[in-house]
Amino acid sequence: MPATGRAAAPDRDFIDTVTGFARTLRHAGVPASPQRVQAMLGAVAHLDVLDPAQVYWAGRLTLCADPDDLPRYDSAFALYFGGTDERGGRTTQTPPSVLQAAPFEVDTAAQGADSDEESPTFAVQASRHEVLRHKDVATLTEPEREQLRRLFALLAPRLAGRRSPRYTRAHRGRVDLDRTVRQMLRQGGEASELLRRRRRTKPRRLVLLLDVSGSMAPYADSLLRFAHAAVRSAPLNTEVFTVGTWLTRITRELRARDPDRALAAAGRAVPDWSGGTRLGDALKAFLDRWGQRGVARGAVAVLCSDGWERGDPAELGSQLARLARLAHAVIWVNPHKGKDGFAPSTGGMVAALPHIDVLVAGHSFAALEELVEVIAHA
User: Fold this and answer.
1) Based on the domain organization, do 240 and 130 belong to the same domain?
2) 267 with 321, same domain?
3) 3-state secondary structure of 351
4) C-beta of residue 287 within 8 angstroms of C-beta of residue 322
5) Residue 241 lies in a domain
6) How far apart are CA 147 and CA 223, in angstroms?
7) How many other CB atoms are found less than 10 A from the CB of residue 168?
8) What are the transmembrane regions (predicted)?
């Protein structure tokens, strides 16, 4: 379709919008590579970037590489841009799927006199989506929390890989002597080719330890939804525990496919919601019962807490040292790290710093997307 005069090329704001959409697609499981993003930008340069239908088809034809990507793309597009159907048109009712997003509320008075034009609304919706991604979840309104829940439904954390002692067939790598000799015997002793092998890769176990004390209450829902997304993506390689006054394993509860049901089941299983924080004691209980027996060995361990420790910080440091010796990597997620003026000055954080590999923020959806990348490359 020919481009209109006002949209001959995408501007800087739209480039940021497309890259943000591609990021959402990658977390939904669609491999939207930088080359494909560049192809989409090249396509929309010849289209009207304010027309949802044109943007939809430009992205679908450039960002999707496999038929399995199409339903994920449709859900992500409806969620990211809000109020559009699978053909890029405006919806008239809320779709039944949990992955479909309700339209953002747009202040039409702020759009000028031409309030009947729907194209600016399309751009404003994507812009508000980006604002929501970076907003502190403790400050969200209820409609924003509902929108964020739909974002979590698209999140697909990836596990880091490790080399297995077992081998698999390969085109390159070491010569597989056993298979090569067997083939020679079948062919009368002649070596027609050298067969090769390589090490298999297996996903590392992911262990999530979530602080559910009172000081972490504003972030508990988001962290549990992140944990549910991790369990949904790798149910056999993910373990989730809550830590506070007690240690509680909630992996089984989070295996429910529906996130709201999973969180409700986890809520019934955890006896110490919004209680005190005894991270050292809870971590010791985890290591004594679970970690030392193999759950933490070679795993990526993620501890989500603000570091307010009511117990002895020295005990927390001692148990983190044990965990660091067992795990492949120890990641600490502190929601306050994403705020201005943050300093790891609490007793728990001071005791933890020598024994952790990475300290990341966890105050927003964008910060949790960053955590996905940290886990995948640990």
Assistant:
1) no
2) yes
3) helix
4) yes
5) yes
6) 16
7) 12
8) none
Residue 115 lies in a domain: yes
Helix 12-27 vs helix 52-63: crossing angle, to nearest 10: 50
Q: Please check whether residue 156 lies inside any domain of the structure.
A: no
The answer on 46 and 123 residing in a single domain is: yes
Closest by CA to 102, choosing from 110, 112, 93, 111, is 93
Residues 274 and 247 in one domain: yes
What residues make up the domain containing 320?
205-376
Number of domains in the chain: 3
- Distance (Å, whole) CA 11 – CA 129: 18
From the DSSP assignment, how many helices (H) and strands (E) are in the chain? Answer: 14, 9
In a domain, 144, yes or no: no
345 HSE (CA, 13 A, CB side): 3
What is the mean pLDDT, run by run of 10 residues, along the chain of 378 residues?
Answer: 43 75 81 84 80 84 84 82 48 32 36 45 61 88 88 85 80 82 81 80 93 92 95 94 93 93 94 87 94 90 92 92 95 91 86 94 92 91
